[in-house]
Amino acid sequence: MKTHRRNVTILLALVSIAATGFAQESPAPDANINPAVLKVNDDLVYAAEISMVMQNIAGQMGGRDKVPDQQELVQMATQRVVEQKL
Q: Between these two residues, 61 and 22, which has the higher pLDDT value?
């Protein structure tokens, strides 16, 4: 369980960085701007995939008042992506 919690923490950090990094300076051409953050049944899951699902969930929830906090949104999106891969 500790490994899972650590992986989720790392995933949250990577997705948060990816989600907020778009407003910042452009990365170097050789920088990996879409890192693999998870592996499900030998299938890699990339930060952009989770970010897109986060945007879909937020859009489905309607107004900004109903959208959960960033960490909760990352967890919901990650769960949805993992379920789709399985």
A: 61
CA distance 78 to 47: 10
Task: Give pLDDT tens digits for 4-26.
Answer: 555 555 555 555 555 554 444 55
Q: pTM for this structure?
A: 0.60
d(CA 57, CA 67): 8
Residue 33, classed as helix, strand or coil, is: coil
The token pair that represents 11 in the structure block:
């995933």
- Burial of residue 65 (CB within 10 Å: 0-12, 13-18, 19+) is exposed
